[in-house]
Amino acid sequence: MNDTAFFFPQDLVTIRPQFRGKLPATAVYRVIDVPGGRRTSYLIEDVASSGRVKVPGAAYLEAHSGPVPAAAELLPPLTLGATVFAEAGHKIPAEPPYVVLGTKPNGDVKIVRLGGDGNRFWTAPRRCLREVTPAEALAALAAL
Fold first, then answer.
1. Which of 72, 97, 115 is the last residue in one of the domains?
2. Residues 62, 68, 74, CA angle at the centre, nearest 5°?
3. pTM over 0.70
4. Are residues 104 and 53 in the same domain?
5. Spatial distance between the Cα atoms of 46 and 52, rounded to a whole number of angstroms
6. CA–CA separation, 144 vs 139, rounded Å?
7. Bridge partners (DSSP) listed for residue 131
8. Which of these three, 72, 98, 119, is where a domain ends?
9. Would residue 7 count as lying in a domain?
10. CB burial class (10 A; 0-12, 13-18, 19+) of residue 98?
C-alpha cells in the first residue's frame, strides 16, 4: 500500500476493493474533507445517495477512472441572500422558501426560513437546494 497519494476536495474517488466491505462496488465518492493537523482521515460522500463515510487514509482510496456519474456534476454556488427551496431527500421541510445565510468549505449551505423561525437554521448539502426567483418565493408564501 502506498500512502503517498493525496486527494483534494471535490476529487472523485472509489474505495479500493480490499477495503470496501459491504459498500457497493460501483459507488463513486466525492472528497469532502482532507486530513490536516493531527487528523489522518478523509471524509467522502457518495455522489448518488449523499451518504458520508470516513476513510482512515489515502491508501484506502483510488482515483475514479470511469465515466463521471450525472449525480457528480458540480452545481453553481449559491449567493448570500438567495431564495431557495429544499428538494426531496433531506430532513428539511420542503414547503417554505428559505434564504441562504452562508456556505461552508465542505459545500454545505446554511439556510433559514424566509420570514424567520425563531433562531432556527438548517445546514443542507448544496444539491438538496434549488434557487428560485422572487416571484416563485412570493407565490409559495401566499399559498401558506
1. 72
2. 105
3. no
4. no
5. 6
6. 9
7. 84
8. 72
9. no
10. buried
